[in-house]
Structures are given as structure tokens and as C-alpha cells.
């Protein structure tokens, strides 16, 4: 989720968490990270989201954030353990970076020089460390603009995606970067707001009652979370950047 | 807390959390990090621990861990915000490192080369980044033994403590390193276990009922958490290392 005003994710997370072992088979752990100012609240659990007291808390406790990344895991590489749960967090240039990946990379063994190393054993965390390492190598000690970062990330995502499926989201709290390898959908909610119904449970919310006309919220997810809104599908290989709830058109390289 | 078998911290945290705005004035945020395997569960909140739904969850939800670091904050430097809440987490050599500090450093502005940078504005996070940077500089790309790390950390803690008050705890999930500048107490609970009563609330637990004879748990805290156990006070300038719930005698440098 990426928004122009701090927004809680209770509605979307309620539907999403059901896919962690109930309406879908992703029951090998879950996680969610909320940016709040420059800080991050990071929750991970290697139990299924549907059974997790922490997930229950997040459904009920309105943590407001402009950038949220959540993940439910179906283990492909790496055992079921806490250190293998997404999203992963690292610090670079005095900011936190949060990353989650859906997919499976084959024979992906980039040379890591030690500045960022995986703690767990997933292809995903290895890919994240590689992205961070190359990003720092490219921009050295100067945090780049979102535009420069976009050009860099689109390129490295394309490179990593050549090893397999690489649907990924990355955020530094200012922008949300998204690469689609096979399957992703998005939606921008803005004025005039309507009511929305979850696809995974009987639960409707009327956004006209909980928003102001200036609010704008982008939600990016594998499969649409609601069944009465106009979700748009990413194309394979597509890379998009969201800032303040809106798509920033990528610059042409 | 440092233990030889994964142990929950619900009893100790119940008393500790009361000091975050009730029996003590540390109400500018709180945090706790639990190692679980190589993974870390990290919870931070910039609201007072006594008012926090997250703190309530942790009092009731038995997260078992061999190394836990918790902190309640009374802001001295840095505003009240999420990014200024302890403990802080960084990755080095493919392990997470967790750090918390109690005290106040004056005119402490070490040269940071960018490998680890603070996200917030506290002297504490700056000190942590400095420790991590110097640690990597000293041992390069080879994680040191606990013994070598002890010699290094004791020395750098002494250096940082020359700038003010530096009561700190640091863990990599294998050992818990503790430096006392002014005030810290510790206790090792082991067979034969007894009953203990919290100092901050009417709450007693009989450890004989929830332990096995092999269990060993060290608890390190500013002020004793119970009023009927034999807490020992650190000496000013003392540095101790805890592994598997026991003190490892520091090597002489």
C-alpha cells in the first residue's frame, strides 16, 4: 500500500491474511512492515497468518502509514523459520529499506561482497542483498532521487527476473517500487470514493465515510482483494513506482 | 534476558512495562527484540508502554527466546518518534545485531563512513552505528569468536563511556554483551528455582513449576524487577558477557 496520507490497512489486511492458510495455501509464515515517519514497525511470524495472534492484533489496531509491505509465504527455497519470513529490512543512507518477493529464482548466486548479507536461506533475501549492494555501489554515499533510483531498480529487476519469477515490492518510505514478473494487480482509490467488498470474506467498507476528498491510496497485490473495484493487471516485465498513492510514470532510459 | 533454553519473558516484561509511564517516568516509547533462531522479532512503539496494545500482547503471548533486549525510553536526545525507539537492529556478517542504551552522551560525534548510519536522531543509535562500523573495520569479513568480540567491545564501550553515561546491551543472538556506566543489576536463575514476586505489581510466579533442572536464565536490568531475589549490582565501568544464561568471565586484555 502506498498513500498520500497515513492510512490504516485493517480492511485490506483482513482479506489478505485469510490467504495465509485459509482461502489460499500460503501458510509458511507472514510479515508486514509499516513506515511511520522514518521509523519502521516490522512484524514477522513463521506461523500461518490465519492462526497468528499478531495478525489478529494488526486486523484490529489501526496503525497508520503511507507505505506498507505485507507478505504471506509459501516456502519454495529455505525452511519455514522466522529469518526466512518476508518482508526483509536493511538500512542504507540512514533510511530503512523494506523488501518482499513472490516467486522463485533458479541458480541465482550473485557475488555478495559482505556489505549486505542474507541472514536466512531464501533466494529472496539474497536478491534483496544484491539489490542493496549494487545500489550502494552505483550511488556510493549519496542517496539518489526517486527518478534515478527508478532507472537503476528497473534495470536490476530485469536482470534478476532472468533467473526466474521475480514479483517484488521495495520501499524506502518515500516511494514504493514494484516489479511484475508474472502476476500482480493494482488499484488507486481516490475521490469519488465508493464502497468495497472483500473477495475472501463477507466484509464491506464504505470508503466515503472514512476518507477526505484529498486522500489517495494505491494497493498493489497478487490477486485482487475486492470483487467490485476496477483492479488493473500488471504486464509481465512491467515496473511501476508509486508515490503519494499515484503512479509516477517511469522515465525512459 | 539471556538463557540456555528458549524462555518467555512475560513475567519480567509485566513488571518492566509498568516503568514505562506508571511506576517510573520512561514514557517516551518502548521496544523489545526477541531472537528466534537467526531471526528477530522486533517491536517498537513511540507511545508509553503502559498504554500500548502491543505491550499488552507481549505480556500475554509467550514468545520463547534465548536472547531478548527490551527498552523503555525517557527522551534525552532526539524527539519522541518511532525511529528513535530502542532497541535498534542492524545486520552484519549475515547475523542480526540488536542494541539498546540507557544514558546520555555529550559531544559524541564519531566519524561514520556510511556503512552503518543512524535513521533517527539519538546519540544512542549513533553509538550503535559507530560500534558496528568499528567492529567490521576491525574484523573485516570474518565474524569473530565471542572471546575476540568481548575484548573489542569492552574497549570500545570504555571509549564511548568517556562521553557520558553508557549503560548498554548488545546481542547477536549467541551472546549478550553488557556495559555498565552507572547503574545495572543482574540475576541468574537456576536450579534450585524458587518463587519470585514482582517489585512493581502484585504478581508472583513459582519458577519451580515452569522450569526443568537444566534451565538457566540471566536477567539484566537497570533496577531489580523482583523484591525477593538476590540481584547483584554492576560496578561502574564493568563489562560482562552472558552466554546460555551464565556469565563468561572476560579475558584479560
Number of helices of chain A: 4
Approximate shape of chain A: globular
Rg result of chain A: 17 Å
Biggest interface, residues from each chain: A-B, 35 and 35 residues
Strands of chain A, total number: 15
Fraction of residues in H or I helices of chain A: 10-25%
Spatial strand arrangement across the major sheet of chain A? 3-2-4-1-12-9-13
Mean pLDDT of chain A: 94
Write up this protein.
- The structure is a homodimer of 253-residue chains.
- With 253 residues, the first copy, chain A, is an alpha+beta fold.
- The first copy, chain A, has a single domain, classed as 4-Layer Sandwich (Glutamine Phosphoribosylpyrophosphate, subunit 1, domain 1), CATH 3.60.20.10.
- Chain A has helices spanning 10-18, 53-60, 123-139, 146-161; strands at 2-7, 30-36, 39-45, 65-72, 88-92, 95-102, 167-171, 176-179, 185-190, 195-197, 204-206, 216-221, 232-233, 239-243, 246-248.
- The first copy, chain A, starts with a strand and ends in a 5-residue tail after the last strand.
- The model of chain A has no long low-confidence stretch (mean pLDDT 94).
Summary?
Chain A is an alpha+beta fold. The first copy, chain A, has 4 helices and 15 strands. In chain A, a hairpin with a 2-residue loop joins strand 2 and strand 3.
Keywords:
about 250 residues; 15 strands; seven-stranded antiparallel beta sheet; Glutamine Phosphoribosylpyrophosphate, subunit 1, domain 1; homodimer; 4 helices
Describe the protein's topology.
The structure is a homodimer of 253-residue chains.
Chain A: E1 2-7, H1 10-18, E2 30-36, E3 39-45, H2 53-60, E4 65-72, E5 88-92, E6 95-102, H3 123-139, H4 146-161, E7 167-171, E8 176-179, E9 185-190, E10 195-197, E11 204-206, E12 216-221, E13 232-233, E14 239-243, E15 246-248
Helix pairs in contact in A: 1-2, 3-4
Amino acid at each position: 500500500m502506498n498513500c498520500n496520507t497515513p492510512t490504516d490497512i485493517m480492511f485490506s489486511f483482513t482479506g489478505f491474511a485469510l490467504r495465509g492458510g485459509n482461502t489460499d495455501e500460503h501458510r509458511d509464515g507472514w510479515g508486514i512492515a509499516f513506515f511511520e515517519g522514518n521509523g519502521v514497525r516490522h512484524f514477522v511470524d513463521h506461523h500461518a497468518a490465519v492462526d497468528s495472534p499478531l495478525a489478529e492484533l494488526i486486523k484490529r489496531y489501526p496503525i497508520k502509514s503511507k507505505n506498507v509491505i505485507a507478505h504471506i509465504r509459501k516456502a519454495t527455497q529455505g525452511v519455514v523459520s522466522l529469518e526466512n519470513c518476508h518482508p526483509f529490512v536493511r538500512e542504507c543512507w540512514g533510511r530503512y529499506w523494506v523488501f518482499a518477493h513472490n516467486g522463485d529464482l533458479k541458480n541465482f548466486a550473485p557475488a555478495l561482497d559482505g556489505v549486505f548479507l542474507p541472514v536466512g536461506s531464501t533466494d529472496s533475501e539474497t536478491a534483496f542483498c544484491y539489490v542493496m549492494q549494487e545500489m550502494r555501489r552505483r550511488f556510493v554515499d549519496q542517496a539518489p532521487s526517486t527518478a534515478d533510483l527508478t532507472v537503476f531498480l528497473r534495470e536490476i529487476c530485469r536482470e534478476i527476473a532472468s533467473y526466474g519469477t521475480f514479483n517484488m515490492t521495495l520501499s524506502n518510505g518515500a516511494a514504493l517500487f514494484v516489479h511484475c514478473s508474472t502476476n500482480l494487480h493494482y488499484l488507486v482509490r481516490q475521490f469519488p470514493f465508493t464502497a468495497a467488498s472483500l473477495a475472501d470474506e463477507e466484509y464491506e467498507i464504505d470508503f466515503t465515510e472514512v476518507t477526505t476528498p484529498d486522500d489517495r491510496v494505491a494497493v498493489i497485490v497478487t490477486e485482487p482483494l475486492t470483487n467490485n473495484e476496477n483492479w488493473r493487471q500488471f504486464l509481465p516485465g512491467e515496473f511501476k513506482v508509486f508515490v503519494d498513492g499515484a503512479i509516477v510514470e517511469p522515465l525512459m532510459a
